[in-house]
Specification:
With 180 residues, the protein is of the alpha+beta class. 41% of the residues lie in helices and 13% in strands. The protein has a 4-stranded antiparallel beta sheet with strand order 1-4-2-3, with helices on both faces. The longest helix has 15 residues.
Length: 180
């Protein structure tokens, strides 16, 4: 199997899959959509393979420069306008990486989310890149290294979700006792 095939096996990460599960099971959750980078960046697969190789060699600054120089597809403005029609309130940009929320490793707090963002073309470009930058951050590399997780085939989707100011928030981790 090629690098390209491996990377694209899971373009929607577990966090996004969980949101779909909530929706399917009628669990109240703010409006969301999943942004697949292949729909927004020309030759994303090749770009991603290159960044994964650089990341494995610890060339963090080079990866960062490459991400900041990303050119989007020509129809980006139309796509963002369509997204704006779906969201009449500020949004959150959330990463949904393919290796996070696994059975043994959560990656909690390693990927970036951005809240209360006005959805427009300028902000879309900026926060899309910020999410992608967090995928290849040094802290993610150190976490992968410490936990002996392969440092290749990193990929993500980006969740754009309606922002709301909650009264309470929190994170819960649970293990099924018969699996441990």
């Amino acid at each position: 199997m090629s690098d390209n095939q491996k990377i694209n096996q899971t373009p929607i990460g577990p966090k996004a899959k969980t949101l779909f599960w909530f929706k399917k099971n009628k669990i109240k959750t703010p409006k969301f959509t999943i942004v697949n980078p292949t729909d927004y960046i020309p030759n994303y697969d090749e770009f991603l393979i290159k960044q994964n190789r650089l990341f494995q060699k610890k060339y963090f600054k080079t990866v960062q420069k490459n991400i900041l120089k990303i050119k989007f597809k020509n129809d980006l403005e139309t796509k963002v306008d369509n997204l704006k029609k779906r969201f009449d309130k500020p949004v959150c940009f959330r990463t949904s990486a393919n290796k996070e929320d696994a059975s043994k490793h959560s990656f909690a707090g390693l990927y970036d989310s951005f809240i209360n963002i006005e959805l427009n073309l300028k902000n879309f470009k900026f926060y899309f890149k910020k999410c992608l930058l967090s995928l290849f951050s040094k802290r993610v590399y150190l976490y992968l290294d410490k936990n002996k997780i392969e440092k290749n085939n990193l990929n993500l989707s980006i969740i754009i979700q309606e922002y709301f100011k909650g009264e309470y928030s929190g994170v819960a981790f649970a293990n099924y006792p018969l699996n441990n």
